[in-house]
Amino acid sequence: MATTETAPARVFGAGFADPGPLGLAAFAMTTFFLSSVNAGWLDKSVEGVVLGLALFYGGISQLLAGMWEFAKGNTFGAVAFTSYGAFWLSFWYLVAHTDLSKASASAAGHGVGFYLLGWTIFTAYMFIGTLRLNGALIAVFGLLTVTFFFLFLGEYNASSGLTKFGGYLGLITALLAWYTSFAGVLANTFKRQVLPVFPMA
């Protein structure tokens, strides 16, 4: 009796390139510039330069990376990149279009502080998710949690010292994100793991 073999169903998104390195690179570059301002490497007056990066690279590119992660079935990547893409879009809107002139300096600082506190909480529980992924992502999300926390404290307490410290933490976070992105690009290009990311599983 002749038998008919059925080809396995093709999983949607299986042929997509890994969007992770793109999302991490977009996050790293935007974070690097803004953290350079927060750390005092660049004068506060040039902070507006980050708006293009926040809108197009940190925002839209990460949002796209998140959608591609959804298509590939990667819940962690989808939630992370879509959310941080939205963070940078919201930051662009906050700086470019939000009028806080009617609020006192203290009230404005508290408002922005709570905005950063919300992102601290989100990043903290995403950090828990990295504990089953790899050491590189653990480092990125762990340090990012602390970065957001110090930026929150800096804004809420109008403390330039705490904000500056958060800026330095952000610079290290950006470098770690670039490293993890670079490791992903090399792994795909060379078809082997060139730079270690220290997988947990």
Summary tags:
mainly alpha, 201 residues, 0% strand
Describe the protein in words.
- The chain is mainly α.
- Helices cover 72% and strands 0% of the residues.
- The chain is globular.
- Helix fraction bin: over 70%
The gyration radius over C-alpha positions equals: 19 Å
- Discrete helix count: 6
User: Low-confidence parts, pLDDT < 50 over ≥5 residues?
Assistant: none
Calculate the terminal CA-CA distance, rounded to whole Å.
Answer: 45 Å
Q: In terms of structural class, how would the helical and strand content be classed?
A: mainly alpha
Q: How would the global form be characterised?
A: globular
Concise synopsis of the structure shown:
The chain is mainly α and 201 residues long.
How would the blueprint of this fold be written?
Blueprint: H1 20-38, H2 50-72, H3 75-97, H4 105-130, H5 135-156, H6 160-190
